[in-house]
Amino acid sequence: MKKHVFFAALFITIILLSIRSFAQDSTLIKLDKHFALQFQLGDNFKLTNFNGYTFSGKYHLSKFAIRVGAEVGSFNRQNNRTAFNADTLLSNNTFEYHSINIRINLQGLYYLSVYKDIAAYVGGGPFFAFNKLNKAVFYNPNTLDKTTEKENATEIGLTALIGVEWFVKENIGLSAEYGIDFSNFHSTSDSFSEQYNGENTFKTFRNSEFKIFQVYANSAKLGIVIYF
Fold this sequence. Notes:
Elements: H1 2-18, H2 26-31, E1 35-41, E2 47-49, E3 55-61, E4 64-85, E5 88-111, E6 118-139, E7 145-169, E8 172-197, E9 200-217, E10 221-227
Antiparallel strand pairs: 1-2, 1-3, 1-10, 3-4, 4-5, 5-6, 6-7, 7-8, 8-9, 8-10
């Protein structure tokens, strides 16, 4: 309910701002050919990555701005899980994880007329996300039992958004934004198990595939924009 109220308020604000014939565009003229970094306001007014992207920046061309968000991350982790019953070792398993994820978006923002340093804008653009995970589980290394899993997931879609920005100073702005994503999500998973029992080896292979078209609303975001 709160999301819909926020969206309705932004829509009404845009209508009111766009019909003001005496609106001043001097702020946007000053922003022409300026670059800006965006940060999101989290709980207790902590600055975090905007919309989850490691980098989010935009470049102004008068009333039009181009915004790019990018994230590239990876992690490698290994842990052990051991179970005992009194002094008896029940299991000693080793887990290895290797993962990489990439997310990129490209958006065009169109700023409507500025009134008293407050501008409404609309925009949107494509985004792409990719995640790859390799996991190996060694069950009781003395018996050499092993399971490996590989997961690949991609998401390709479009974002439509609406927002307002208040230019506190010439180089600082506060923003509020709401968006909707339309995307195709596709994932595949392969699992291979080897179980050793004396001279016999039992092998099991499984694979699965998942596809879905989804439409989901992003949470309302409050942010800080710093211009250079």
